[in-house]
Every structure is written in C-alpha cells, then in structure tokens.
Amino acid sequence: MISIMIAASVGLLVSILLTPYLIRTFSRQGFGQEIREEGPEGHKSKRGTPTMGGVAIIVALVVGYFVAHLADWLRDSTNDGPTASGLLVLFLAVALGLVGFLDDFIKIRKQRNLGLNKTAKLVGQLVVAVVFAVLVLQFPDDNGLTPASQNLSYVRDLALIFFPVPVFIIFCYLLISAWSNAVNFTDGLDGLAGGAGAMALATYVVISFWQARLSCVESPQAACYDVRDPLDLAVVAAAATGACVGFLWWNAAPAKIFMGDTGSLALGGLVAGLSMTTRTELLAIVIGGLFVVEMISVVLQIAVFRTTRRRLFRMAPFHHHFELAGWAETTVIIRFWLLAGICCLFGLGLFYSEQLGLGGG
C-alpha cells in the first residue's frame, strides 16, 4: 500500500512541477496547437496554446513507478523490484506516447491540424501492439502465470473463449488501437480526457489492489484472482493517476497546455494494457464508458453521413455536438466528468458483485 501511495504522490508532484516548465519551453519554441476550422467558434481563441503536454504525464508516470520501487527496495533490499507486467504496461504507454509525439510534432512543424497520415499512425500502433502482444504472453512466474492470457476476460478469464496466438495478436492490436483512439477522440475539451482518464486509472488502482489481496497464490479460494503481479499493476495505475491529476491542474479550463496525441495515446495504452494484465478486458468497456461512447459517436457520424449524406450529430466527437447546441464548454466538461465517474463506479460495482457471487464477500 505504501508503494501505491508513493507512486501516486511522486507522479502528482513531478507532473504538477514539470508541466509549467513545458508550458514555458513549448511557448518559446512556438509549439502551439492548431485548431479545426470547422470546430466550435469558441475554440479559435485556443490556437497557439502549447501542446504535447502528455510528455509531463509520461515522465511523471515513469518516475513515479521507479521511485516507488526504489523506496520499496530501501525499506527491504530483498524485494524483487519491477515486474514483467508493470514494465510491459509502461512500455505500451511510453511507446504509444512516442507515436503521438511524432504526430504532434508534425502538426506543429507543418502548421496544420493533421499530423501523421492515417496509414503511418496505424502502422505505428500496429508495431507497438504486436511487440506488446508477443511479450505479454512471455515471462511466466513460478505458478506459470504470464502478464496476459490468450483467453478473453470479463472480471477474470472466460474459459470458453480462447485465442490462438495469431488471433490473439490481432485482438491485441484491435484493443490497443481502439482504446488509444477512443481517448484521443475524447481529448477535445480542456481537461476532459485528463479528468476522465484519472478516474479510470484510479479505478484500476482499486481493482488491481483488490486482486492482490485476493490472489490465488496468497489466499486460494473460489473468489481468488489468477493475475500476475497485481500489486505492481496497482503501482503503475497509481503513478498514472497522480500524473493525470497533476497535469489536470494546468490543463483544466482554461487550459494553459494540451496533452496532445502524446498524452491521449499513452492514456489509451494504459487502459488497454491494464485491462489485459488484470484480466478485465470486457469490464474496461464499462469503466471507460465515456471514451467508448465518444468513439461510437464518431463511427456513427461517419456511417450515417456516408449512407444518408446527413449528419447524426452537429459535430463529432459528440462533446462538440453539445457545444454547438449552446452549452458552455465548462458545462460539457463537468457533466462528462460526472458521466465518466458514474461509469467507473458502475464498473467497480460489477467487479465486486462478481466476486461476491463466487462467495468472496
């Protein structure tokens, strides 16, 4: 528990102190955000706001994680240190953040709202996903558990749905691509993705900590969890939560910096990686419900427009729909945060009710 608190505190501290330095540096370099011409009129004033602030989230995440392990080692030098599960989730977040960084950098250099083309972005996500998919099935512990399994999962693995390795790699790519793009779509209003991401990651702190308390290795029973390194996954999630909250201090409306694709792709990678390593891939759809709905709104907008030549929403992602309907930006943000919080609480309720159903209450 102490490691979780240290990771969250350090992640928060690094993020909240590093972000203003990035604001000054990026402002001097002219690393300002380009705005969609067809976007809400109020967004035009945001042109030139520093972007790529996701760098602060990624740095804070990594520093928070390793400082927590250093403190753990100083307390007890016999501790094993970072685990395969924790390092792989970190790798996924950092690698996707790098793809997003390249996207942001190209936008800035070309002075437009389009960075990497769709093919280049998908190839980047594909390479990262394939490497993650291959590695996440390696590194069995003493009980034969690997960081992820080839079974689809809800709150634990579903025995009836098993993916052969090639299918698992495809599934992994689709999952990672979906989550990273879903968070990317949500990152359209000041602090919206950062606040919702912090809630989802905090939910995973609770879930992975609970799994550690009821690990089948430590306390075998009907309701135990076969998850490799759940406590270390809680440390990762805690460091990421602290990083998001610290960044949100500067990113909340009116934002002084945007996370850009650097941050949104990294956050999506964290949700995807944590869902796979905690065996909660289907439950994550509920926990990250706001991100899912934002992505669905884009898909529906495209599908309806291509078939009927009419728009389902005034603008997609659909948080812009409410802005164009006359809602103030802060009103949309706060209400969407409430929806994100409801999704997280509902997800926790489903997680706990499944455990109660197996006699673990």
Automatic annotation (TrEMBL):
<keyword id="KW-0961">Cell wall biogenesis/degradation</keyword>
<comment type="pathway">
    <text>Cell wall biogenesis; peptidoglycan biosynthesis.</text>
</comment>
<keyword id="KW-0573">Peptidoglycan synthesis</keyword>
<protein>
    <recommendedName>
        <fullName>Phospho-N-acetylmuramoyl-pentapeptide-transferase</fullName>
        <ecNumber>2.7.8.13</ecNumber>
    </recommendedName>
</protein>
<feature type="transmembrane region" description="Helical">
    <location>
        <begin position="257"/>
        <end position="276"/>
    </location>
</feature>
<feature type="transmembrane region" description="Helical">
    <location>
        <begin position="122"/>
        <end position="139"/>
    </location>
</feature>
<keyword id="KW-1003">Cell membrane</keyword>
<keyword id="KW-0133">Cell shape</keyword>
<keyword id="KW-0479">Metal-binding</keyword>
<dbReference type="GO" id="GO:0009252">
    <property type="term" value="P:peptidoglycan biosynthetic process"/>
</dbReference>
<comment type="similarity">
    <text>Belongs to the glycosyltransferase 4 family. MraY subfamily.</text>
</comment>
<dbReference type="InterPro" id="IPR000715">
    <property type="entry name" value="Glycosyl_transferase_4"/>
</dbReference>
<feature type="transmembrane region" description="Helical">
    <location>
        <begin position="282"/>
        <end position="305"/>
    </location>
</feature>
<dbReference type="Pfam" id="PF10555">
    <property type="entry name" value="MraY_sig1"/>
</dbReference>
<dbReference type="Pfam" id="PF00953">
    <property type="entry name" value="Glycos_transf_4"/>
</dbReference>
<dbReference type="InterPro" id="IPR018480">
    <property type="entry name" value="PNAcMuramoyl-5peptid_Trfase_CS"/>
</dbReference>
<keyword id="KW-0472">Membrane</keyword>
<feature type="transmembrane region" description="Helical">
    <location>
        <begin position="159"/>
        <end position="179"/>
    </location>
</feature>
<feature type="transmembrane region" description="Helical">
    <location>
        <begin position="191"/>
        <end position="211"/>
    </location>
</feature>
<dbReference type="GO" id="GO:0046872">
    <property type="term" value="F:metal ion binding"/>
</dbReference>
<keyword id="KW-0812">Transmembrane</keyword>
<keyword id="KW-0131">Cell cycle</keyword>
<dbReference type="GO" id="GO:0008963">
    <property type="term" value="F:phospho-N-acetylmuramoyl-pentapeptide-transferase activity"/>
</dbReference>
<keyword id="KW-0460">Magnesium</keyword>
<dbReference type="GO" id="GO:0005886">
    <property type="term" value="C:plasma membrane"/>
</dbReference>
<keyword id="KW-0808">Transferase</keyword>
<feature type="transmembrane region" description="Helical">
    <location>
        <begin position="83"/>
        <end position="102"/>
    </location>
</feature>
<comment type="function">
    <text>Catalyzes the initial step of the lipid cycle reactions in the biosynthesis of the cell wall peptidoglycan: transfers peptidoglycan precursor phospho-MurNAc-pentapeptide from UDP-MurNAc-pentapeptide onto the lipid carrier undecaprenyl phosphate, yielding undecaprenyl-pyrophosphoryl-MurNAc-pentapeptide, known as lipid I.</text>
</comment>
<keyword id="KW-0132">Cell division</keyword>
<dbReference type="GO" id="GO:0051301">
    <property type="term" value="P:cell division"/>
</dbReference>
<dbReference type="InterPro" id="IPR003524">
    <property type="entry name" value="PNAcMuramoyl-5peptid_Trfase"/>
</dbReference>
<feature type="transmembrane region" description="Helical">
    <location>
        <begin position="6"/>
        <end position="23"/>
    </location>
</feature>
<feature type="binding site">
    <location>
        <position position="261"/>
    </location>
    <ligand>
        <name>Mg(2+)</name>
    </ligand>
</feature>
<dbReference type="GO" id="GO:0008360">
    <property type="term" value="P:regulation of cell shape"/>
</dbReference>
<keyword id="KW-1133">Transmembrane helix</keyword>
<feature type="transmembrane region" description="Helical">
    <location>
        <begin position="52"/>
        <end position="71"/>
    </location>
</feature>
<feature type="transmembrane region" description="Helical">
    <location>
        <begin position="231"/>
        <end position="250"/>
    </location>
</feature>
<feature type="transmembrane region" description="Helical">
    <location>
        <begin position="332"/>
        <end position="352"/>
    </location>
</feature>
<feature type="binding site">
    <location>
        <position position="184"/>
    </location>
    <ligand>
        <name>Mg(2+)</name>
    </ligand>
</feature>
<dbReference type="GO" id="GO:0071555">
    <property type="term" value="P:cell wall organization"/>
</dbReference>
